[in-house]
Design brief:
The protein has about 80 residues and is mainly α. It has one domain. Helices cover about 70% and strands about 0% of the residues. The site of zinc ion has 6 residues, from helix 1 and helix 3.
């Protein structure tokens, strides 16, 4: 089974929290190794989680993922991913 970037974005917080099903986690991991866009998403998501870790808040700021997805959609239009 192959997952695309949008699937990875949906799973990224679970990936960081370690709550993903092992099979899903492995697919996400594999995708991240080959996809620059998703690696960047992982990094920025991690940074936000680290910033909020002191208060044990592991939710993304309201609107974050919408803005992120919009930005990514833009980036992908400019640079279509290889198929
Ligand atoms: Zn990707």
């Amino acid at each position: 089974m192959v997952i695309d970037c949008k699937h990875v974005w949906e799973h990224i917080s679970g990936f960081i929290d370690g709550t993903l099903d092992p099979a899903v986690r492995e697919m996400v991991q594999r995708h991240l190794e080959t996809c620059e866009i998703c690696s960047a998403v992982l990094d920025s998501t991690r940074n936000i989680l680290i910033l909020t870790a002191d208060d044990r808040v592991f939710e993304l700021p309201v609107g974050f993922s919408e803005r992120l997805h919009a930005r990514l959609d833009e980036a992908m239009r400019e640079e279509p991913p290889e198929n």
